[in-house]
Every structure is written in C-alpha cells, then in structure tokens.
Prior knowledge:
The complex is a heterodimer.
Chain A (H helix, E strand, L loop, with lengths): L6 H36 L6 H22 L7 H23 L8 H23 L15 E3 L5 E3 H22 L2 H11 L1 H6 L4 H23 L11 H14 L4 H21 L2 H18 L12
Antiparallel strand pairs in A: 1-2
Chain B lengths: L1 H28 L11 H4 L10 E8 L6 H20 L7 E8 L4 H14 L5 E3 L3 H13 L4 E3 L12 E3 L4 H15 L4 E7 L2 H17 L4 E8 L7 H10 L3 E5 L3 H12 L8 E4 L4 H7 L1 H4 L3 E4 L8 H14 L7 H20 L4 H7 L4 E2 L7 E3 L5 E2 L3 E5 L5 E6 L15
Helix pairs in contact in B: 3-13, 4-5, 6-7, 9-10, 13-14
Amino acid sequence: MFADYSMAELGSIFVMQGFAGLILFSVFLLMALGLAIIFGQMGVINMAHGEFMILGAYVTYFTSQLFLNYIPSLFSIYFFLAMILAFIASGALGMFVEWAMIRHLYKRPLDTLLATWGLSLILQQLYRSFFGAREVGVELPEWMMGSIPLTDTVEVQINGLFVMGLTLAITIAVAVLMYKSSWGKQVRAVVQNRVMAGAVGINTERVDRYTFALGCGIAGVAGSAFTMIGSTGPTAGQLYIVDTFLVVVFGGAASLLGTIASAFTISQAQSTMEFFLSGSMAKVITLLGVVGILMLRPQGLFTLKVRR
Amino acid sequence: MADETERGLESSLRRKLLMGMAAIPAIALMPKFALGAGPATAEVNTTGLAVTDDEVTVGILHSITGTMAISETGSVQAEKLAIEQINAAGGVLGRKIKFIQEDGASDWPTFAEKAKKLLVNDKCASVMGCWTSASRKAVLPVFEQYNGMLYYPTFYEGLEQSKNVIYTGQEATQQIIAGLDWVNKEKSAKTFYLLGSDYIWPRTSNKIARKHIENHLEGGEVVGEEYFPLGHTQFNSVINKIKLKKPDVIYAIIVGGSNVAFYKQLKAAGIDMSKQTLLTISVTEDEIDGIGGDNIAGAYACMKYFQSLDNENNKEFVTEFKKMWGEKTVIGDVTQAAYLGPFLWKLAVEKAGSFDVDKVAAASPGIEFTKAPEGYVKIHENHHLWSKTRVGLAQADGQYKVVFETADLVEPDPFPEGYQ
C-alpha cells in the first residue's frame, strides 16, 4: 500500500501515527487509573466506572454553560475549573456509594460486580431523566481546538497534547500519593492484610472510603477530559468500560506500573493494526491477543509479590 | 392455565355473540344516521379492533429508555403532535385517536413482546414505531402473524417489503444515489473513502454506494472502506489513513456516540471541511446537537428532510413542533418521517372507509399527502414513499442549508437490481 507515496509523505504519516498511538495510550491510561485504584487496590469490580466518568462529563457541560451565560470573559479557562468540579462531584458520589453499598460487600467481591452493574443502570436512567435522553455538546474554548502544524504535513492535535499532559500529571500524582505518602502506605497495608492493618491502628473503614472516592474522582476528571474527544450522553460511559477493564486486568490488578505498561501495549497494538487493517479487525485481534496472553499469564503482566 | 384461556376465549366469544345479536335489531332499525359524526362502528371495524363510536386506539412503540432513547425521543414527539393535530381537525372517520404508548427499552425482544401486547391485548388499529432495523426485524413476524399495521419512520437499508408495514423513511437507494451523483457532478469527485459503523445499515448502504461509484460514476473509485465497532471512540488512525489517501470525498455512515468522537477528532486533526468534502447520510440535526455545530460545519448530508426547508407546510410544522415541545428542540429527518405516519394512516383509513387492516393496507398505495413538511409524498405499490432527496450543508448553528434537491420524486426501490 506504500508504493505510490514519497518518502516525505511516509515519514510524516509515520510521525503522526506514532502520535495517534500516544494519544490512545494517554486516553487508555486516564480511563484506567481510577479503576486501577478501585479494582487493583480494593478488589471491587466497579462496573459503574463509566457512569462516574460521565458524571464528570456532565459537570463539565454545566460548567461550560454557566461560564457561557454568566462570565463569558473567563470562558477560555473554564475547563480547569470544570475538571476540579468533576473530581469533587464524582468523588462525592463515590464516597456516598461506598458508604451506602460497597462497604457491605467487601467480603463478597463477586457480588460487587452485580451490585455496581445495577448501580450503573440506575445512574444511566437518572442521567436520562434529569439531563435528557439526547447527547449534549460541550463547547470548548477556541485555544483547545484544532492542531499545531509542526511541518507542512505533520500536525499535532492540541486536545491530544492536553490529554497527554493531564494523564502524565495525574499518573505522577497517584504514584506519589500511593508510594510516597503515609496515606498511601495505609492503603497498601489495608489491601495486603485488613485485619493486621486494623490491629496496628489504621482506620480501615475510612481508608476504604477515601480510596474509593479517589478512584471515582479520577474517573470524573477522565470523563471531563474526554468531552474533548468523545460524546456526552446518558449511556456514553458504556463506551469506555470494556477497554478500561481490559487495561487494568491485562496489566495485573494491583500494580500501577502494570497498568501503564498494559495501556501502552494495547494502545500501540490497536492503533498500528487499525492503520494497516480495518477498525473492527484491529479490535478483534487486540482482544484475541489479550485473551491469549492472559491464558498464559492469568495474573496479568505485572504482579505484586505478596505472601498470602 | 390452559383451562383458563379456553374459558376466557369461550366467554369472550359468547360476549361477542351476545353483543352481535343485541346489535342486529339496532342496526336493522336505525341505519347509518344513528351516529352523528361517522359511519357505524360495526361497518368500519369488522375485525374486532379497538374502535368505539367516538374513539380509535393506536399504539406508539419506541424506546424511551436505554441507548436508543437518544434517537427515538424525537419520533415519539412527532407522532404525538400529529395525533393531536388530527384530533383537533375532527379525528379519523369521526373518531378521536387515543394512543397507548409502550417502551421498547432499546431491547429487541422487548419490542416484539410489546408489539404483541399492542396488537393482541389492546387491539390497536395501527402502530407507529420502531427505529433501528433490528427492532423492526424483531416485530415484523408479530405484525404479520396478528395482522397489524406498522408505520416505520427511519431511513434504512431496504431489502424488505411487507403488507403490514408502511416505510415512511427512505430506503437506501433513494437516499444514496442522488447524493453521490450530486457530489460527482458538483465537486467533480472521483475518489471516495467509505466509513461506517459495523452493522447492517452502514454495510448495506456502503455496498450500494460502492456499486454506484464503480459502475455509474465516470472515473469513480473507492480508495478505502472501513467499519468500526458500535461505540468506537478513537479515530486518529483512520484519519491518518485518510490524510495519506487524500480521497475527494469522505463518505461517512457512523452512528451513535461514535459520531461525536469522529467529528471532534476530524476537526482536531486539522481536516478543513471547506477543502475536504465530507458526505454523510447518518447525521441529522438531532445528532448535530451532540456533535456541536462548530465541529461539523462544512460537511454535507444527504437525506430527504432538513428543518430549514423553505416551504409553507414545513414552517407551520416547525412552529407547531416547537410550541408543543419547546423552543430548543431540533427536528431531524426521522422525526419528520415519524410525523407522516399518523396522517398516512388517516388518509388510508378514509380512502378505505374502514379501519380493517387488510382494507387499509390495500388502500395505501397511491395515497397522496400534500401537507407533508418535506413536500408532497405518495405511497408506492411497495409500501415505501416517493420522496425527493436533498443535500444540506451543515452550518455552525446546527442547521443545514439546503444546497440541492432532486427535480422529481425519487422512486423507492427496496430490492435494487445490480446493487446487491
């Protein structure tokens, strides 16, 4: 398929395709970070993860409307405030859900699957009833649209760069929080041995609640960021849930590094194959590959070495 | 259980007989003028439909919950408006229309179940409903078995025809061919890149488009054809491929949430729609609401109706629609087609002089509706509509500007020869 093109054209396509892969990587990682905390650290199979993301997206939509109608002069920077609000809204909902539902199910991890799936249906219908069945269009400030031309043929999407930057910032923040702070130490202690952690004076219930809220809050930020590249509607969360679980499970549930590696592997494989094959085939082959590797390595790419 | 059903049948039979016998003297004594407004119920309803002296029941069957609620809401609104207008003008054969609404819940078996309920329990004289092809395929056997009448509003892939269905949207060849001819002539387009979501409608439509491009357009060539799973949200790779192949036209049949992602990413990748022609058959004004006018401005869409159509019927329709459902609502192609359903049924009933499904079906071909917002339409022998096809240019405010319309009505051809 490359016979008819000049070297320059091929070079620029190669660069842009590499960049497309990096954007996909950032998107996957951003989707998966929140779930990596909830599923990886707490073992809760949160099927409502997508709905927490969409709550963030709706918060972004309402913030943009608010700025458009009341303070249009500050519209160009509303997105940052929207992301913070999205974090707070999804985090608060997460905290409530943990208190009302999840904490009763810690001893029955498989039941969380059903319970959170039900929760996702409830949330979808709530969004539909309150925000309308139709998708909403989130308006973006001018500077976030379009692309920066690097050369005549190579163009770099601004919203792609934005997502990459955001993902980098959140990943570093999560890593620091989990592995450098004393709170992170408590979280990991609770994950490894709940009874012992309680015995040494860690308030395990509070740790659980904040961990769950943090995961949901990050999902909210991800949803907020994805208004730039995807749709915002009551059921849009469903678009992300499969890829999200794929990344987290493939990476090895309890490992942040694993999540990063797995997001990278899957995104590169998919975007390369999408270029050479068609969209549907790329997805099929990616899924087959993941299934194959998981059969050989059921624990995922990276695992924590823990004495059980 | 079996006993109960039998007893039920028996008693309903007895009741019918009794009622029939009771009616005999009445009919004998007081012929037609017994009822003020319309003809006698026994005359216009010989098959036991839910028709009384002053009311007739129809069904509305759409998804108001689940994924498809996004799309089907507009159809429900249009059908309710049409029914209200018909009632305000005196109803059908002197009877007011009463509707029973059921929710298909975006689930195809539920559609079939609710269709059966509307036909068997509620005895609806006709049903306005369905949106996706999958839901239509699910209810079709029900309508054929229990002899109901379905008015189906969506543009769809064709390859179907039933005595029990009137297709008020366009079938694929009606929608596709005129648009391709136009873009070939107007933009001298030769090379096409076909894109679609991965299910029956986009695949069948692209098949027809490919045949037409390769066999009927001078120098026409398809340089790529690709499908994406429903709900796909990452299009950067295919956008790069398009940049490499440089087609004259991107021909896109992407649906649902994917649509939003596709157009946003196209814009972000710096594809300028004023230079790169994009023709779609899947984005109505409804979808633009979610995509955002800025993201799609400059694209062309090919369908039979746009909200901006400049004619008296349409102006009145748009005003009435907004009065009933709010200033902010938009009206897309399917919404308008759904609006036609109740009127076409009313005209057929009046022509047949009866609510009986067989008579209505037989009377339907040749029915002309002059007050349609899209302009004059007529029902073909094959139960599809003759209609004009138009091309619209998307504006930043979310509306289309009509840039082309076929001179004559396009004949519906659900089983196109040479296109399969």
